[in-house]
What does this fold into?
Amino acid sequence: MRALLRAACGRLLPLAGRLCARPLAVAAPRHGLRSSPLPAASSPVPGVSPGRRTPCRRGSQFNVPPSALSVARPAGVCSMLKLPVESSAEGLDAAFIGVPLDTGTSNRPGARFGPRQLRAESAMLRRFNGSTAAAPFDSLRVADIGDVNVNLYNLPDSCRLIREAFQQILASGCVPLALGGDHTITYPILQAVAEKHGPVGLVHVDAHTDTGDRALGEEIYHGSPFRRCLEEGLLARGRLVQIGIRGSSYEPDPCLYSRQQGFRVVPAEECWGKSLVPLMVEVRKQLGAQPVYLSFDIDGLDPAYAPGTGTPEIAGLTPAQALEIIRGCRGLNIVGCDLVEVSPAYDLSGNTALLGANLLFEMLCVLPGVRSL
It folds into this structure.
């Protein structure tokens, strides 16, 4: 019996070696930085981009998600949209970056695992937006640049690390699309964004205003990012919109502070049973041509669609309304985006992360410079 097993292993191991030994190459260094390994130009697998500087399928000169008709979805490194993983934002027009932080969470934790699950579910996404005809991968150089190495034991230090990471991304001329993480991350991101662009307009989709002052004596947590941003002059008053606000509160009017600071607040009740296309026409007029940041908390959606989040509130927006909001941002001067508060442990189906991944793709499709075919 042992002799037979040895003979069988002798036949199988060389075969396994041939199957796994796909040649790899490293893309040409940019500004002294070496890219992560990508499939070589001689790779026998059709539909896999051999690198940013080599044309992809159908003539695009940029990175393109590989087709599942040629490459199995579960195969390869788990990156956002199965795009190449780069070591920096240099040379990119837009980049996905994970921020695996949930130290600022007030209720159910787990959003630190959001970026991983968003990437895993994004394997379902394809090259073109079949509804809007947007062709982001024929218009922009896009890649996944990994995660911010946050300090899970020190929230202020994590904010510093996030701010510095996004300062580097923005300095390269790249538009960041952040994968959260809890909503605390938007505060240091906007510090970096405002440093480059000045005070920015805001489209904020959420069940909560996130303009709280203190919780348990702390000023920095996921319920306070926009108050901290207002105090530091990071947001352009009069060019601020919050959509989907709802739920019980500790004050008679939970939106009072937001309105006093110049937000247009659209409660969820005003969205029930209607299209939000007319609303977004008004939002585009209000925000104008100056820089805008788009922040989308997945709990803005009803928990029937997105249960995998830390602070769910009933009677929220629908996925179709989420698409109307994001697609309605087309034409705005968007300089950054985030999708936050996906907590995978509370949705074992993966549907919350799948929805979040699709919304991030939609954000990519409305960035300046993305053309339609």
